[in-house]
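Fresh eyes needed here. I'd like your take on this protein's tokenised backbone:
***
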Amino acid sequence: MISGGLAAAYMYEPWIDKVLANMPGAKSVLNTESPMILKTGIFMDALYMNKIFIKEHRDAASAVLKARWDGLGYWHDHTEETNKLIAKFLQWPVEAVASVIGTNGKSLSGGIYMLDFDESARMCGVLSGDAPFGIANGGMAKAIELTNSWWIKLGVMKNNVDAAKGINCTLMGDLVKSGYRQSLLAK
């Protein structure tokens, strides 16, 4: 971008601020804080597991899933310590952790928004209530369908896929049935 070789780009921090600071006239047209973007769920991440692993080692798969949210909860409750560990692992300055992936395992203005377990379970449709940002319960399939349509427009994919066939939220459902819950607040 700074070389002038690109007219537009999709970027994460800290690169957005670097471009804006170093290219007079550059502007951010839209970002993931926009309610219009947030309600699509299009920029959410997903956790993938091999279906054979889930079938043959369901208890281990469930433990891995639970550990992901336990880790997020630890980050939330021990922010300074965890940010230092993340920075050391990534070989980044601690400040970059906050500006790129968030301050405490939840959210940061200009950074990313991490779904806690309850929000994720609602995206999957296995816990009652709406997901955040006005996304309906079970909205994951619609978000994937929207991503698929954009990838077709951009030439990354050629065909529409049945998003529901690629989603298996039964492990999330098992954790919900076991009583596991997590609701984190941004600090």
